[in-house]
Design brief:
The protein is of the alpha+beta class. The protein is 46% helix and 20% strand. It folds into two domains: 72 residues, Orthogonal Bundle (Arc Repressor Mutant, subunit A), CATH 1.10.10.10; 166 residues, GAF domain (Beta-Lactamase, 2-Layer Sandwich). A hairpin with a 6-residue loop joins strand 7 and strand 8. The protein is elongated and about 55 Å long. The relative contact order is 0.10. Keywords: DNA-binding, Transcription, Transcription regulation.
């Protein structure tokens, strides 16, 4: 009974610490009152947890405000760079950026949101506020629509998502950022079911509406990433032609 109580106490502490860390999801600095409001935890508990997280360098305190600390940044960066999906996708993402000149995103679905695993943007990147580790509602993004179309969800029967399953392409036209749009394709097995991720290009809206110039390379990149994932799972190593993307070799 004593051991069970101790285990439950540790679990409760971890859950509360997780709530406190989740309060910083938007990336901004918060004071104690703001963290209390976002977590719903007692003020004394939040203060105690924050001070412990500061000591562990998971949270940084500057005056009366708190923000994510250097240790969290280190762990987050390590997690992203060790992610096998990102590693498999990176050559195709770089090829897609070189080919189109657009901002390229790699995303996965988490509930009703998408999470950005990679962003390759070049000079245009600063114009689009997406960031690695950031979230966005899936229904308002091209990558989110590409993923929702392949999963059983309340929105699956929407006409727009049915079109995504038929074409392998999803669009976002100035829904999240004025003047910009995105073209996305799901990454997964043929047939449009249970995609593991989605890839997109983001560009000024005029380019997004310009026919196949973006649709074709986005689909090619998504197909090649899926092949890379399958190869990684089976231990296959391919040697693409020098200077060419494997999907075109």
């Amino acid at each position: 009974m004593v051991q069970q109580a101790a285990t439950e106490s540790v679990t409760s502490t971890l859950q509360r610490a997780s709530l406190v860390l989740d309060a910083f999801d938007g990336g901004q600095r918060l004071n104690l009152s703001q963290v209390v409001l976002r977590t719903g935890l007692p003020r004394s508990s939040v203060h105690r947890i924050l001070e412990k997280l500061v000591a562990l360098k998971w949270v940084h305190r500057q005056g009366n405000e708190y923000g994510l600390g250097v240790r969290m940044i280190e762990l987050g960066s390590t997690a992203v760079h060790q992610d096998p999906l990102r590693r498999a996708a990176l050559p195709s993402l770089q090829w897609l950026h070189r080919t189109t000149g657009c901002i390229v995103h790699l995303c996965v679905l988490d509930g009703t949101d998408v999470i950005y695993l990679e962003k390759i943007g070049g000079e245009m990147a600063a114009a689009v506020p997406s960031r690695v580790g950031g979230r966005m509602p899936a229904y308002s993004s091209a990558v989110g629509k590409a993923l929702l179309a392949s999963h059983d969800c309340a929105l699956r029967k929407a006409p727009e998502l049915a079109a995504v399953r038929d074409t392998g392409i999803a669009y976002e036209r100035e829904e999240s950022l004025r003047g910009f749009g995105c073209v996305a394709s799901p990454i997964g097995p043929p047939g449009g079911r249970e995609a593991v991720a989605a890839v997109s290009v983001c560009a000024p809206i005029g380019r997004v509406l310009s026919g196949d110039r973006l649709r074709i390379p986005v689909r090619e990149a998504a197909a090649q990433i899926w092949r890379e994932i399958q190869d990684a799972r089976s231990g296959v190593v391919r040697r693409p032609a020098v200077g060419r993307h494997p999907a075109l070799a």
